[in-house]
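Lecture notes, continued. The same structure-token format from the folding unit now serves as the input rather than the output. Read the line below as a description of shape only.
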């Protein structure tokens, strides 16, 4: 199974985890997914009134420079550890 297939399977599995991860883990899942599927964060950082959007963007932006393949592998590993 290719890394892309594993990544897509992990994305599907992330919707059926046995328990809801904590917020820090959810941000990491989000950031790794975005980096793995689209590369570095783009666009402007959300304003201070959009705290959730800002936290998500910040988490994604912290992965700037991480290759899509590396992010995909980290995502797969993280989802597997949460099953």
């Amino acid at each position: 199974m290719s890394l892309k297939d594993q990544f897509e399977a992990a994305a599907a599995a992330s919707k059926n985890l046995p328990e809801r991860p904590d917020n820090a883990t959810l941000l990491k899942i989000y950031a790794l997914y975005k980096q793995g599927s689209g590369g570095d964060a783009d666009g402007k950082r959300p304003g201070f009134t959009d705290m959730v959007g800002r936290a998500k963007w910040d988490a994604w932006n912290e992965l700037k420079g991480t290759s899509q393949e590396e992010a995909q592998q980290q995502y797969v590993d993280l989802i597997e550890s949460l099953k």
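Point for the exam: Residues 3-82 form a domain with the Acyl-CoA Binding Protein fold (CATH 1.20.80.10).
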